[in-house]
Structure formats: structure tokens, C-alpha cells
Design brief:
The structure is a homodimer. Chain A has about 325 residues and is an alpha/beta fold. Chain A folds into two domains: about 5-50 and about 150-320, Rossmann fold (3-Layer(aba) Sandwich); about 50-140, Rossmann fold (3-Layer(aba) Sandwich). In chain A, about 45% of the residues lie in helices and about 15% in strands. The first copy, chain A, contains 14 helices and nine strands. The first copy, chain A, has helices spanning about 5-15, 25-30, 50-60, 65, 75-90, 105-110, 125-135, 150-165, 185-195, 210-220, 245-250, 260-275, 285-290, 310-320; strands at about 35-40, 70-75, 95-100, 115-120, 140, 175-180, 200-205, 255-260, 300-305. In chain A, the strands form two sheets. A five-stranded parallel beta sheet of chain A has the order 1-9-6-7-8, sandwiched between helices. In chain A, β6 (about 175-180), α9 (about 185-195) and β7 form a beta-alpha-beta unit. In chain A, α1 crosses α8 (about 150-165) and α3 (about 50-60) packs across α8 (about 150-165). The longest helix of chain A is centred in the middle third of the chain and has 20 residues, at about 150-165. Chain A is globular and about 55 Å long. The interface between A and B is medium-sized, with 28 and 27 residues.
Chain lengths: ~325, ~325
């Protein structure tokens, strides 16, 4: 697993995923006291970065494997990515999703042709359900983060960020990346450290799902309680990945955490100032900058806004809260 | 007034306005039956394209004129553009705004340092009020569309669109541009016709404010009734500009109109699929494509999304309507 795998993924993804732009915003620069580059993966195909890893995995299946279809589990963004990649490649997709997943994510996964199997997020074991289906059907699994092809695909976010920031003559001093299972942060960190060797990289988690922070602190994988709750439906992972964690441990400078209230404020800021629709899990890196979780004055900071799939009712409720 | 003025404006605006990207979206392509390129000026500084024309005008004032400040009238987006340009250049700005302008636009204009003078949109004469203040103070006027420097600044939208679409190897067959007083469409048309001679250009208006459509049909400027109403607060102009209309008459292929309901549906589509916050006036070109106002199958169509400054309450209300 190295940067050549990410470069190969970028070639596969050419014409499939969007090369999302790097945006800048005066209000955000003023708050940060420095330059902030925004990589808006909410503008990506299916509304999050997940198409990158899913397509990179599905497009490398053997013809035999592809013919038997694939199985995945996901709270929604990976589900849409897998369903979309399957639709593009003519591969049948089955996705195990929590029954309380955002409606927009459930509907879009079905609309893209994915077969959705529901389970209870707090009592069911999605991985066990998915593995059973995979065995029954002889279908390949598409893990949402712990697979080299998935990590390499997500790493194209970091690759684009590094290349485009250099093109703008604004190479970041530090990059903040939302972290659930760690696929996006580990893949992107590999690419960023290759292209911008001196860059500092921070993963950002919801404070209630700080498994990567605890694991990073202890130097080995830690599991948090199943009873944790967060508004960030996309980042509710209880333990870092076997493949993703060693990469994150080696390449991250630190793991930051943000509260649900800080996430809500970031979603409001994105609506009012960035004119972007951002989902809770997609807003954690922005939230970390807005709430001053690390020094930004006089520095160039890049943040990944990883997704925008949020239900209308929640979005409207968040917008009408006092700031 | 020619494309060299627009190229000069682009140079002045370098580092001031954002070079907004060209976005693409699968759902939109599917609905159109062809490729659609989106130029999202909602991501622009102050949330609309208006900073372009305002800065291009203010930055060319003599030192004497700049010292006496400027006066403008605007429903809100030009107001923010003028206030922001004034703040950047150290020029005092006074803006006459309707008292029912969106709260976000009023607040942002003040926050940017603009002095706001309110009037009643349906009984007051904003131009007369602004001209009186300008005479009293010896201040220069910054018209929202009918000035060569303003038209040239807005034309940089078309210039970027032409250049970036060629870079993507997707030169559009047709471009749709929101139209109020006609500054954005006339300036952009000049640049587009220079860079992409065969392109078709359509202005899009709210059906209740179809002054440019009527004028285009008759070959001379027509005024519509003051009693017209539309959700598109940014496009409530009752007569095309003296400078903008001849350019639009010569370069546009047609003027399209959309209803308020079509605009609301476009704002919902932008939230759900594009993950962009779009204001009513900014959504008319998108609305025209979504509601099939012109053939798009098998063609490459570019649309300008001209602004995203919408109040939370209206946005939430539109999102929760049935489609």
C-alpha cells in the first residue's frame, strides 16, 4: 500500500468521480486568521467521497467475482458509492444499512439500484449480516474502509488536494480530515505526505466516537462503547480499521474531536457563508477550524468537507437554531 | 465596450473574486439527456457574482472620486458586492436597499461596512433616492448593471466559463444566464461569443419580470408594470438597461422565462442533488433546464447559478414543500 496505488486509483477514477475544486471563503479566512482551503466532497458524485473507494474496489474485481455481485455494509454514504459504482460497472450490489439511516441515503441507494437490507444500528451486527449474505451468494465484500483498494480510492482526495493546492501556490501547512473508520484519512495522508512532505495532518472525530483518538494515544487499536451517540451518522465507527490504523498512527500529527453542537454550528456556517449543503459527519473538520481546535493564525489550513447527504428536516432544524 | 475590457477586468479581479469552478452532476445530466456544466457563483465572494462588477468599477475611480465615497441602489447582491469592494479598496459605500430585502443581504451589507438606506420597493424610487444622495455628497454612482465597468466585471463570469469549459474539452453548445437588468448576460455574452463563436446564449427571467423578453421580442426597450411580483428578489427589474439591452439584443438567441414554482423546484434540486445553497434569482437558469424550457438532449448546456443569498426561513419552507 503506497502512493502508486493511489495514483493508479486516480487513473481509474478519471471521468468517474469529480475532481472537486478547492474553494476559499473570506469569512472563514478571517475567523482562522489565515488561509483556509476547502475540498468540498459534498459536490462529489453521490454527495460524498465514497464513490472513490467503492469504484476503485469494484473495478478491480475479476469477471467471475463481478458476476456474483458484491455486498457491503454502510450507514449510507458508502452504500450510495457502492450502488453507484455497481450501476456504472454492471455489478449487482447488496448493502446492509441501519434502519435509522437518513432517508435521503436510503432512497438514493435504492434509486441507484442497490438492494438494501435493514438492521438495528444499536442491537444488530451489520458486519455479521453482510458476511453471511456474502457467503450465501459467493459475493465479494466491499468494506467501507478496511481494504487496500478502498483506502487507495479515498486517497485520491488527498492527492487532488495536494496537487491543486500547489497549482494555486497555496500548499497547506496542515490538513484536517474527517475520520470514521479511517479510510479517507489514511489514504489521503499517504498521498499528502508524498506530495507535501512537511505537511501536518489531523484526523477529526465526533467526541462521542473518538476511537481513533484513543487508539492514537495508546498506539494500538481501542474500541469504544456501543452506547455512544452522535449526530454524525457517517462517523459512528467504534474501532479503527486493521489496515487504516497503522497508517494513521504513523502519519497523523494528532486526532481532534468536536461536539455535536460544534458540528451544528459548522453546518449553519456552511449554509450562510459557504453556500454548501454539508451533512454532520462531513462538517467535523470545518467545525474544528471554526471552534479553534488547533492554531490557524498565519497558516494555510486545508479541510475536507466529506459529504452533504442530510435530510431536509434535520437541515432545516439546524438552520433555525440560534447560533 | 468589447472583450478587451472584460480581459482587463479579469486581471483586476485576480485575487479578489474567486474563479468559481465548473461543476457537473449525474442526476442533472440524466434529466437533461446531455452534459450540463454548472458555474456556481453562489460560491463567489459575498455569495453572488456582483463583487465582479462592483470591484471593477470601484477600482477604476480617481483618487478624488474614491475619497468622496460611492452610492448604489440594490436589492441586496449588488449591495454586498459594492460594500465588499469598498472595504477592500478603502472607499466609503452607501447603498439604497428595499426594506423587504432578505435579512441576510441587509445584515451582510452592513457587516461589510456599507451604510444602508431603506425605502419601500413598491412606492419609493430607489434610483432617485440614490441620485439625490450622490449629488449631496459629490459621490460617484455604482449602477447595478448599466455601466461599462460593471458590465465588463460581470463578463468575467462568461470569460471563465468559456476558458474552463474548453480546458475540460466540453465547450457548451448553449449557455443559460439569469437576467435582471442584463449586466451579467450582456457581459458574459460578449466574452462567450469571442471565445466560443458558435455558442447559443439564452437569458432567463422570472415570468413576472419578463422585461428583457418583451424588449427582445420588440427590438426595443419595454417597461413592465410596477405591480409585478416574484420570489426572485434579485431579478425584479422593470426595464432593461440602456447599455445592456443593445448587447443582449445583438448576442442572445432567445429569452426564456420560468415560474416561481419552477424556481422553488430548482432550489430543492440544488439542495438534494447539487448540495448547493441557491437563492431564487440565482436558480432561474437551472429551473429552465429542469423544466425543459429548451432542448438539452445530446447537447452540452452550461448554466450560471448566480447567487446563494437566501434567508433560512424561506429556504427551509421551500425544502419541505412537496415536489
Amino acid at each position: 500500500m503506497n502512493v502508486a496505488d493511489i495514483e493508479a486509483a486516480a487513473t481509474r477514477l478519471s471521468g468517474v468521480s469529480v475532481r472537486t475544486p478547492l474553494l476559499q471563503n473570506h469569512e472563514l479566512d478571517q475567523i482562522a486568521g489565515g488561509k483556509v482551503l476547502i475540498k468540498p466532497e459534498c459536490l462529489q458524485v453521490t454527495g460524498s467521497f465514497k464513490i472513490r473507494g467503492a469504484y476503485n474496489r469494484l473495478s478491480q474485481l475479476s469477471a467471475d467475482d463481478a458476476a456474483r455481485g458484491v455486498v457491503a455494509w454502510s450507514s449510507g454514504n458508502h452504500a450510495q458509492g457502492v450502488a453507484a459504482a455497481g450501476a456504472m460497472l454492471g455489478i449487482e450490489t447488496t448493502i446492509v444499512m441501519p434502519e435509522d439511516a437518513p432517508q435521503a441515503k436510503l432512497l438514493n441507494t435504492r434509486r441507484l439500484g442497490g438492494e438494501v437490507i435493514s438492521y438495528d444500528r444499536y442491537t444488530g451486527d451489520r458486519e455479521a449480516i453482510a458476511r453471511e449474505i456474502a457467503v450465501q451468494r459467493g459475493a465479494a465484500l466491499v468494506p467501507s474502509y478496511d481494504h487496500e483498494h478502498v483506502i487507495a480510492g479515498q486517497g485520491t482526495v488527498g492527492l487532488e488536494l495536494a496537487e491543486d493546492s500547489r497549482y494555486l501556490d497555496l500548499p497547506p501547512d496542515q490538513v484536517l480530515i474527517p475520520c470514521g473508520g479511517g479510510g479517507l484519512s489514511s489514504g489521503s495522508a499517504l498521498a499528502l505526505k508524498d506530495r507535501l512532505p512537511g505537511v501536518s495532518i489531523y484526523a477529526v472525530e465526533p467526541v462521542a466516537f473518538d476511537d481513533t483518538r484513543r487508539s492514537f494515544r495508546d498506539g494500538e487499536r481501542r474500541r469504544i462503547e456501543d452506547s455512544a451517540r452522535s449526530i454524525c451518522d457517517a462517523l459512528q465507527t467504534t474501532m479503527p480499521g486493521e489496515l487504516t490504523f497503522p497508517i494513521n498512527r504513523d502519519l497523523l500529527n494528532q486526532v481532534l474531536t468536536v461536539s455535536d453542537d460544534e458540528v451544528r454550528a459548522a453546518i449553519r456556517f456552511a449554509f450562510r457563508n459557504l453556500k454548501l449543503v454539508v451533512e454532520p459527519g462531513g462538517a467535523v473538520a470545518l467545525a474544528a477550524v471554526l471552534s479553534g481546535k488547533l492554531p490557524t493564525a498565519g497558516r494555510t489550513t486545508a479541510i475536507v468537507v466529506s459529504g452533504g447527504n442530510i435530510d431536509v428536516d434535520l437541515f432545516a432544524a439546524i438552520q433555525t437554531e440560534p447560533n
